[in-house]
Amino acid sequence: MNIDPQTALERCETLMLDMDGTILDLAFDNYIWKDLVPRRYAAANGMSFAEARDLLFEKYAAVQGDLEWYCLDHWNDRLGIDVVKIHHDVTHRIGYLPGALDFLRAVHAQDIRVLLVTNSHPDTLHLKDAVTGLADYFDGLHSSHTYGYAKESQSFWAALQEDAGFDSATTLFVDDSQPVLHSAAEYGIGMLVTVTRPDTTEALRRGSEFRGVESVKDLLARL
Question: pTM here?
């Protein structure tokens, strides 16, 4: 759990990377769910932004960590607004975190299997790939929606293990979510690293029990 991140990259045979907050800037998603969705919901329901935001944050909290939290179909049905269209309306905000694209290019050239392991809904994943071309740098793209369980669940890791056939001892997994990293640790993933600045508009995160890097590019010092 506390292995040096650069050493972990040197030793791994399979590198699993989260997408939002690890490779792509979480500022996009935070803007969507904390600002734009509440504004659209408020306009559709004759509410103030503050009222809509408070109500939606309660709805978010009720399913956070479950697959429904990450499911656009769920929110379309629950909120009665087109959240897929909302994502498409602001695609100019989608972008890599600093150094992430250089990192992907570097590891793509190495003898390491690189897998994207995300809770992102397939519609969002496809949209972000269309904007960034990130799929070009991965040997496989794995959405939790394919398996029916979020990454916070042990059932997800069992399903991914059966599908991707990774060796837990030689796998490095990088994610910004502490509950997800705890789930991976419980499953037995051997090397775990957290990203401490997943949103470029927010301050550095501190206090994780997992070894952290501000950016995945910081894993490259010895590669």
Answer: 0.95
Domain regions of the chain by residue span: 5-25+95-220, 28-92
Asked whether the CA dihedral 24, 117, 180, 78 is positive or negative, the reply is: positive
pLDDT per residue over 72-103, tens digit each?
999 999 999 999 999 999 999 999 999 999 99
List, in sequence order, every beta strand (DSSP E) within 35-161: 113-118, 140-143
Please give the structure tokens belonging to residue 196.
Answer: 């401490």
**Calpha distance 132→8 (Å, rounded):** 27
Strand partners, 193: 174
- Give me 51's structure tokens: 């009222």
In DSSP notation, 92-110 reads: GG--BPTTHHHHHHHHHTS
Q: Is pLDDT above 50 for 42? A: yes
- Which CATH number among 3.40.50.720, 3.30.70.330, 3.20.20.70, 3.40.50.1000 corresponds to the domain 5-25+95-220? 3.40.50.1000
